[in-house]
Amino acid sequence: MTDHLKDIDGNPVTPNLPIALLAEITHRCPLACPYCSNPIELTRAAQEMPPEDWARAFRQAADLGVLQVHISGGEPGARRDLAQIVASARDAGLYVNLITSGIGITQARLQELDRAGVDHVQLSLQGIRPDMADRISGHPGSWDKKMQFARWLNEIGFPLTVNAVVHRQNMDRLPDMIALAETLDARRIEVATVQFHGWANLNRAALMPSREQAATARRIVDAARLHLRGRMVIDYVPADHHAAYPKACMGGWGTLGLNIAPDGTVLPCHAAQTIPGLRFDNIRDRPLRDIWVQSQAFNAFRGTDWMPEPCQSCDRKTVDFGGCRCQAMALAGDARATDPVCSKSPLHADLAAKAQADALSTPGDFTYRRMQRGG
Ligand code: SF4
Ligand code: FES
């Protein structure tokens, strides 16, 4: 692992500049989703960065070339100073996307967020009916609150993307989920098959879709894309455990985007802290440009030089960048390994068989993510 990207002669090379920032302004959340991908150890409220520090981070991000900020959590509405944080992102010249569960944000606050500069809203949905949505979110009444929130979004005129995490217990209702997004006047639906980072890994068997479910979901998405062309866009993250190749996680490590955790820790991806040996900097201690260009963590898996075989000689190495480093860490015990969801990984066959066995097992109860309210 190097402290700086070098060319073949050993000279420092400036990497691509990022275009997107995920600002996780809090880990607090009123929901208890079993597929939460936030770390097992959450940042407490007392450690969250104040709005002045977020404002400085947004200015530095804009100077670095970042165009859009995704303000997320946890539930960003858990912060009473959310509008102030949004306004500072807008002042920095960033396009502001708010990613929310819709729980805990009143109509008046939503209007305040509109004035503060939110450009676009992503609303998460856990199901297509009250019973399913409330059971999966672990929050009684969540469905009614989300539907009310969606009506307010429409009244104000926010462009809307619906976020739907799909898994073995709701994947068969994917056509209904897409239809629901249409009735909510969403411009886009992001259908993401559950990823087993953080808390989600505790619910692996209860959430893992089967190979057949994944294949059916792919056909449904393809057909719906044709049917909805020109009306609604469908982004789809397929079930990688049943795929031949992994996804290009983060579009390549240290290539397109970065995350800032609630306490100001700057991360190449949201699960990067699961990788031992990486040294992470804090935006309060070091300028963002230095962190992006020079830090050990961001240079650890940049480019392709770090890749072992079979990735090193594979013609897809600049397509998927060897897959997800955090998944390689979790499944192979080595962040440099080929992502085991890749069919060229020696671990793939066992992994796919285990995934299918999980998917066909009797689903146990969810282990819900309950978190401290005040931190
Ligand atoms: Fe991607 Fe590596 Fe698999 Fe090739 S061997 S497809 S680069 S993960
Ligand atoms: Fe960290 Fe994929 S989540 S590289």
UniProtKB/TrEMBL annotation:
Cofactor: [4Fe-4S] cluster
Protein name: PqqA peptide cyclase
Record note on quaternary structure: Interacts with PqqD. The interaction is necessary for activity of PqqE.
E.C. designation(s): 1.21.98.4
Recorded catalytic activity of this chain's protein: [PQQ precursor protein] + S-adenosyl-L-methionine = E-Y cross-linked-[PQQ precursor protein] + 5'-deoxyadenosine + L-methionine + H(+)
HAMAP family noted in UniProt: PqqE
Domain Radical SAM core: 15-231
Keyword 4Fe-4S part of the UniProt annotation: yes
Pathway this chain belongs to: Cofactor biosynthesis; pyrroloquinoline quinone biosynthesis
Family: Belongs to the radical SAM superfamily. PqqE family.
Gene, per the UniProt record: pqqE
Matches recorded under SMART domains: Elp3
Cofactor binding summary note: Binds 1 [4Fe-4S] cluster. The cluster is coordinated with 3 cysteines and an exchangeable S-adenosyl-L-methionine.
Top-rank lineage group of the source organism: Bacteria
Residues noted as binding [4Fe-4S] cluster in the record, renumbered to the chain: 29, 33, 36
Keyword vocabulary terms for this entry: 4Fe-4S, Iron, Iron-sulfur, Metal-binding, Oxidoreductase, PQQ biosynthesis, S-adenosyl-L-methionine
Role summary: Catalyzes the cross-linking of a glutamate residue and a tyrosine residue in the PqqA protein as part of the biosynthesis of pyrroloquinoline quinone (PQQ).
EC top class named in words: oxidoreductase
